[in-house]
Amino acid sequence: MPQSMSQASLPVFEINLNALAAILDKAEAFAAAKKIDPAVLLRWRLAPDMFDFTRQIQVATDQARRGAARLAGAEAPKVEDNETTFAQLKERIAKTVAYLKTLDKQQIDASADREITFPLGPDKKGHMKGDDYLNHFVLPNFYFHATAAYAILRHCGVDIGKRDFLGAIPLRMT
Predict the structure, then answer these.
(1) What mean pLDDT is predicted for residues 107-131?
(2) What are the φ and ψ backbone dihedral angles of 116, each rounded to 5 degrees?
(3) CATH class assigned to 5-159
(4) Cα separation, 40 vs 65, whole angstroms
(5) Using alpha carbons only, how large is the chain's radius of gyration in Å?
(6) Which end of the chain has fewer CB atoms at under 10 Å, N or C?
(7) How far apart are the first and last CA of the chain?
(8) What are the residue boundaries of the structural domains of the chain, listed by start?
(9) Cα–Cα distance for residue pair 103/76, rounded to 1 Å
(10) How far is it, in rounded angstroms, from Cα 121 to Cα 84?
C-alpha cells in the first residue's frame, strides 16, 4: 500500500523535532559542564553567511508547521522568532509538535494533487502540487535546517551522534 501524505510528513516532523529537543538538552548540559555561556552555542554558525543555531531551529519548526498546515489547507499559527534560551527553543518545538497533532490527516492525504501556493521571499510565490511540495520543498528544507542545527552542536563539541539525530525512530531489532 502506498504511503499517504500524512504518513510521509507528520511522523517525520514529530520524530525529528523531538530529536532536536533532545539535543537541546545535551547542548544545555554541555554548556553548563564546560562553563560556556549558552548564548555562545545559540549564536554559533558554521560559516559567516549561514544562519546561527537558534535560527536553524526556528526555520526547521517553521517548515514543519507551515508546510503541514498548507497541505492540510489550514492557516499555520504565526510565531515570533524571539527565542534566546534553550528552554524557549524547546517550548517552540513542543508547540510545533502539539500543533501538528491538531491537523486533519485526511485533508493532508487529499493534498497530493492539489496546488499549493507558498511564499518564496517577500515578493514571489511558488506553486507546486502537494506531493511535489512535500517531497521536493518542505522535507528537504526541514532536513537541511535540522541537520545544520545538529552539525553546529557537533562542531562545538557537544557529545551527540547519529542516534541523537535520528531520534526515536520506529525500529524493530531481531
Answers:
(1) 95
(2) -110, 130
(3) mainly alpha
(4) 27
(5) 17
(6) C
(7) 24
(8) 5-159
(9) 10
(10) 25
